[in-house]
Amino acid sequence: MARVFMKGCEAIAEAAVRAGCRFFAGYPITPQNEIPEYFSRRLPEVGGTFVQGESEVASVNMVYGAASAGTRSMTSSSSPGIALKSEGISYCASARIPMVYANISRGGPGVGSIQPAQMDYYQATKASGNGGFEMMVFAPATVQEAVDMTYKAFDYADRDRNPVLILADGVIGTMMEPVVLPEMKSDEEVAAIKASKQSWACVGHALDYAHRSWIQPGQWSTVRMQEANEDAAALYASWEKEVQVEEYRLEDAELVMTAYGISARICKSSVDLLRAQGIKAGLIRPITLHPFPYKAYDHIDYSRVKAVLDVEMSIPAQFVTDVAAGVKDRCPIETCLCSGGNIMSRDKVLDAAKKIMEGK
What we know:
Blueprint: E1 3-7, H1 8-18, E2 23-26, H2 34-42, E3 49-52, H3 56-68, E4 73-77, H4 80-95, E5 99-105, H5 121-125, E6 136-138, H6 143-160, E7 163-169, H7 170-174, E8 176-180, H8 187-195, H9 222-238, E9 245-248, E10 255-258, H10 261-276, E11 281-286, E12 288-290, E13 307-312, H11 320-327, E14 333-337, H12 346-357
Parallel strand pairs: 2-3, 2-4, 4-5, 5-7, 6-7, 10-11, 10-13, 13-14
Antiparallel strand pairs: 1-8, 6-12, 9-11
């Protein structure tokens, strides 16, 4: 297929439409504004519905309703907007409603800055809302990956009847790159997907006891809630087979960098530059942040490696918590950090790597 030149946010929206998404509700916030803007133009062309809600809270609950009826549905926001959506996301997880959302993350905490950051790692992987629910979380490092992950996310959401998150930092969301777009699902395919959900979806007929007229966000007894949580835990455990990770030039590495998203992209080019200067560097890049590829860190030759360098656009570091769980004290872990909307530079990464190798 032909490649097209697209901005990350717009490419995410187009991938969702091609995957059969026919409902989007959202609210403006930088740097994700191009996602709802694109949907507002594109969805009417395919018989879909776009709504700009009066707030993030309203928007996520509109998605809850549309997805409850079996329609592939999506929302998006940036950092503090995602925090406002967290209750609705938790409701979808409790009621086993499939939905996809994207966080084009920015600096924080609080309102923070409008510039890119990676300060939502804990929010994305540890506490996306109350109640301890979990989601599959994908972290693209290119616009093409953002397209592919968004397209596939709807299949995961429908399979598991669970929310799925695309965690893309503001660099990925606002940069432009050539991408190959996936095939557009036909009207017949979209209808078949919706029809396949009718065993559980709302159809609006309260007296039709074969279907639900609404989907409750809780199991109104302690016994039923525990049973529901046990079922959810079994689902989460099954995701181990879905782990995705890139291991780059790891075989003889004496320094291993680890990062995700745009930071990993910067690290990958840094590995090649360091190699050209005689420093044997490698990279572990988690593609799924949840489930996390802990086992990839077992592939490090700890008799050879001087340190693992955690690179992330967050102060204090967050991603490093899972890195440490993978490394298991088998070597030192150093950090290379920036925060608040400052974008990681390759020179900063190279300087940190050289200082480790020089013992400074």
